[in-house]
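Q: I'm writing a short explainer about Cytochrome c domain-containing protein for a general audience and would like to include a description of its predicted shape. Could you first generate the structure from this sequence?
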Amino acid sequence: MKKKYFYEFIIILNMILFLSIVESCWFDKKKPNIVYMPDMYYSEAYEPYSDPYSNYNNKKEKNIKIPLFSKEKTSSLSPVEGTISRNNSFPNFKNIKNKGLNYSKNIIQNPLINNHYEKKEIIIKKGKKLYQISCSICHGKNGDGQGDLVKNEKIFGIPNYKDRDLTVGSIYYVITYGKNNMNSYASQLNEIDRWRVSEYVMFLKNK
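A: Of course. Here's the predicted structure. Afterward I'll give you a sentence or two in plain language.
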């Protein structure tokens, strides 16, 4: 009788172990059958463009209902009406490329000054630093077209700013879209910095 009970105990124990193993195994890792601490495994803190709905099926878990989310599959909402892109701080100039260089020559006031973004002295100070990093190697520290590359005969035909008909708008246009042998510097300088450099170039021209 003792052996019979012993064997029954072993069988029951093996069944428990087997069921535990089967229960813990799950092929779909995105939807595990058992999670030890679901509130930590599935955080309710949303990440941009993530699915706002948890994959963990638990009756006790609260069901998140956010009908405003785009197709209910992303936690990133569309920007509100009137939002301006960080790469387009001055929407009045967003079509300057289509209007062309001649149009940009009519822009004689720096929008940073018009919009009270910075004082002119600050713009020139910051523009000088940016100019020395990105522009002086070709155009020269004084804007005379005698940068180090020109002096070493690596490039030719760099003009003196004083000899050119320039406005802050035309300078911005060329920095943004390039002209002749000069490529666009839009990837090196953001929109605000391009206006700063443009103001500093005008400072050198009128110096």
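A: For your explainer, you could say: DSSP finds nine helices and no strands in the chain.
Q: Perfect, that's easy to follow.
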